[in-house]
Design a protein that fits this description.
Layout lengths: L1 H4 L2 E6 L9 E6 L2 E4 L7 H12 L15 E7 L3 E7 L14 E7 L3 E5 L2 E7 L2 E7 L8 E6 L4 E7 L8 H12 L17 H8 L7 E5 L5 H8 L3 E6 L2 H14 L3 E5 L13 E5 L2 H19 L5 E7 L14 H8 L3 E10 L11 E9 L11
Parallel strand pairs: 1-8, 2-7, 12-13, 12-15, 13-14, 15-16
Antiparallel strand pairs: 2-3, 4-5, 5-6, 6-7, 8-9, 9-10, 10-11, 16-18, 17-18
Helix pairs in contact: 5-6
Length: 377
């Protein structure tokens, strides 16, 4: 299987007469062959093709994909991606899924069902380059170009969790990714590690261990932690930002696990010693404060530290990030976390000498005695 994983395959398909005509490609152990079934009935294939042609709020029917549970999902204007599995306990030994399957729908009308592959698929005037690592261990990547060589979609990660979907969800994802397009840098990305994170590390308030960053952006803070001995996982819903993070880590010579996921629905990543969030909480809490706390609890265990930098409601200026009151922070976290500090500080700006908006620096420690999701035992 190791030898097969390094093989590359190329498939060229004739332009299809209509979107109702669907090509199905079964990819097994690095080999690509047209297949009539792959666990799909003709009706299922046509139904899924119709479902993926437009953005829709409900998830696709897992049974039509030959799986029992969907673990990762994304709708995009040029593709749809699903990672599904048979449940744990279904296979020998009971600890691993009996089946892990990826299904990639290359719009308008081609399915790729994989086991293990690096593959180039030409469909009409589009060329799709896919990297799909074995067994769902890593998400893999996609890039799309046109026949004239123009890039339609630059290389980027597939999702590791279920992303917001349907028309509103897709629009939200595009809204967060757009600020990174064209080599731009969004206003919240000051180009250097957060000073309050650096101080916590340099003062020894937070020590190296397994760390996760929520809303990591272009990865400056993730790379900083990796350079200082942390084992880092970085999560964001902006694929362009994660590509920039990969480039930064490569230049710095450090390893970071980059994860395309919704912080409110992270994939199973285990628990961490340290959780860092610069500017995610103050946005997400307006939508689902309890959901954010639950997600953090799912990444934490007793003793896990959480450092949050959030907008401060005491800021008199109207511009700037969303603001949170001190009593709101305490109300959100007091039941499940002890406060090591809650300090009024200022956000960094692109000018190291500049004065950013008022912020809160909040260092929490997860209480012992609750379940992973925060419900009392």
């Amino acid at each position: 299987m190791e030898a097969d994983s390094r093989r590359r395959s190329r498939i060229a398909l004739r332009p299809l007469g209509s979107a109702a005509t669907v090509a199905l490609i079964l990819v097994v152990a690095g080999l690509c062959t047209p297949a009539p079934g792959a666990g799909f009935s003709t009706d299922h294939v046509l139904t899924l093709a119709k479902r993926f042609a437009e953005f829709s709020d409900p998830l696709p029917d897992a049974s039509q994909l030959g799986v029992d549970e969907i673990l990762a999902f994304e709708e995009h204007k040029v593709f749809a991606y699903v990672l599904g599995c048979k449940p744990k306990g279904a296979g020998p030994g009971g600890e691993a899924p009996s089946l892990v399957r990826r299904v990639v729908f290359l719009k308008p009308s081609t399915f790729v069902v994989d086991d293990l592959v690096q593959v180039t698929v030409a469909v009409g005037d589009r060329t799709f380059q896919l990297t799909l690592p074995p067994g769902g261990a890593d998400a893999g990547t996609i890039a799309v170009s046109q026949a004239d060589g123009k890039t339609l979609l630059a290389r980027r990660l597939f999702p590791s969790g279920i992303l917001p979907h349907g028309p509103k969800g897709v629009a939200m994802l595009e809204r967060w990714d757009r600020p990174y397009h064209g080599n731009r840098r969004p206003g919240w990305d000051v180009g250097r590690p957060a000073s309050h994170l650096r101080k916590a590390v340099e003062d020894g308030a937070v020590r190296p261990g397994r760390a996760v960053i929520l809303g990591c952006g272009s990865g400056t803070n993730a790379v900083y932690l990796a350079e200082n001995g942390f084992d880092v996982t970085a999560i964001d819903i902006a694929p362009t930002a994660l590509v920039r993070g990969e480039e930064k880590a490569r230049r710095a010579g450090v390893r970071v696990r980059w994860v395309l996921a919704d912080v409110l629905a992270p994939p199973p990543l285990g628990t961490f010693d340290f959780v860092f969030d610069r500017g995610c909480y103050h946005h997400v809490r307006r939508l689902d404060a309890a959901g954010f706390v639950k997600a953090v609890c799912g990444l934490a265990r007793g003793g896990t530290q959480v450092l949050i930098l959030a907008g401060n409601a005491n800021e008199p200026r109207r511009s700037g990030p969303p603001r949170v009151k001190e009593e709101e922070i305490r109300g959100d976290f007091s039941a499940l976390f002890d406060f090591q500090w809650l300090r009024q500080v200022r956000f960094d700006t692109t000018n190291p000498q500049g004065q950013g908006p008022l912020a809160w620096s909040v260092l929490l420690r997860r209480k012992a005695g609750e379940t992973q999701t925060g419900e009392p035992k």
